[in-house]
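Private note to self, pasted from the team thread so I don't lose it. Backbone tokens:
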């Protein structure tokens, strides 16, 4: 991504969807009664804290692992203002130093795309080692054939350039290989934007920087063919909630 400020602007456009945020939060809140205790919560890839802040009210200690320096520092300040004990690591999950703290809830929301498949098992095992007895891990990811998954990349990139990201199916398969039981549920998340420019900003973010806004504008005819509706533009993300 070009810089932290641009990333923040794009994420604000994408996350300006109260219904989506509340839907995911309600799913996570439904899991809270299953926890043995509610002492510590770890959010891996929290972004600006759209889910971290609401969920932090249930926990005294909040850990975050965030690669974006601007988001990380701003979120730490917000959590301190809420009176939370905070453990923060500005970097990638694979290298995060989070100490011996065990967490009752670990959330990884649309983060594991960035984990190379050879590193996936080690990344999931690291989560398991960080989980307190009686705790839960919640992983939210699109499936491969979601509109925001491989079909999106194939729409705009050549065959040889299509990125092999980690998707929900890979995580479930990896847990099964590790002998770890998990359950999953599927839901469709719809991102709607009235203008082409806002929609292009969302697509650029979803494609993780593999194509820039100028290239997308040059291919706006493809966007109009695939995603334009009478009300504007929309893309449907078929998402799995994986619970361990």
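Design output:
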């Amino acid at each position: 991504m070009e810089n932290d400020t641009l990333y923040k602007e794009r994420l604000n456009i994408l996350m300006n969807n109260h219904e989506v945020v509340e839907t995911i939060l309600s799913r996570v809140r439904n899991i809270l009664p299953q926890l043995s205790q509610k002492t510590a919560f770890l959010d891996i890839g929290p972004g600006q804290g759209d889910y971290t802040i609401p969920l932090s009210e249930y926990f005294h200690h909040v850990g975050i692992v965030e690669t974006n320096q601007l988001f990380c520092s701003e979120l730490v300040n917000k959590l301190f203002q809420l009176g939370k004990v905070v453990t923060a690591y500005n970097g990638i999950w694979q290298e995060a130093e989070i100490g011996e703290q065990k967490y009752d809830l670990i959330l990884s929301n649309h983060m594991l795309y960035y984990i190379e498949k050879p590193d996936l098992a080690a990344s999931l095992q690291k989560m398991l080692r960080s989980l307190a007895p009686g705790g839960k891990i919640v992983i939210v990811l699109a499936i491969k054939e979601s509109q925001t998954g491989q079909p999106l990349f194939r729409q705009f990139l050549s065959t040889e350039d299509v990125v092999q990201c980690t998707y929900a199916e890979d995580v479930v398969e990896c847990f099964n290989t590790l002998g770890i039981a998990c359950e999953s549920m599927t839901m469709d998340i719809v991102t709607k934007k009235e203008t082409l420019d806002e929609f292009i900003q969302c697509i650029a973010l979803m494609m993780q920087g593999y194509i820039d806004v100028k290239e997308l504008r040059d291919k706006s005819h493809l966007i109009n063919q695939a995603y334009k509706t009478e009300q504007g533009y929309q893309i449907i993300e078929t998402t799995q909630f994986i619970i361990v």
